[in-house]
Amino acid sequence: MAKRKRVYLEEMVGRVNANMILPYPPGVPLVMPGEMITEESRPVLEFLQMLCEIGAHYPGFETDIHGAYRQADGRYTVKVLKENTK
To answer: Is beta strand 64-66 parallel, antiparallel or unpaired with respect to 22-24?
Structure first.
């Protein structure tokens, strides 16, 4: 099994995602395991960040994002594959 680590959501560009990231509602996966967030797919990342900000500013309107983990500072982390350092 590949080694994983957590990075902040905004640091995902250029990394391989380790878990499915699925905002609920609506419950549609946006990022699949093994998928790399690139500059071309940055709008997906920005959408996830927007959902996090809405929940922070408007209590009761939070979106549960499966695969993203809220930290004490309010930022979200996700699991990515560690880079191979041979």
So the answer is: antiparallel
> Going by C-beta distance under 8 Å and a sequence separation of 6 or more, which residues neighbour residue 19?
33, 67, 78, 79
Helix (H) or strand (E) holding 5: strand 4-8
Domain that holds residue 40: 4-81
Classify residue 86: in a domain, yes or no.
Answer: no
The answer to whether residue 23 is domain-embedded is yes
Q: How far apart are CA 70 and CA 8, in angstroms?
A: 10
* Residuewise pLDDT in 10s, the chain (86 residues): 679 999 999 999 999 999 999 999 889 999 999 999 999 999 999 999 999 888 888 888 888 999 999 999 889 999 999 986 55
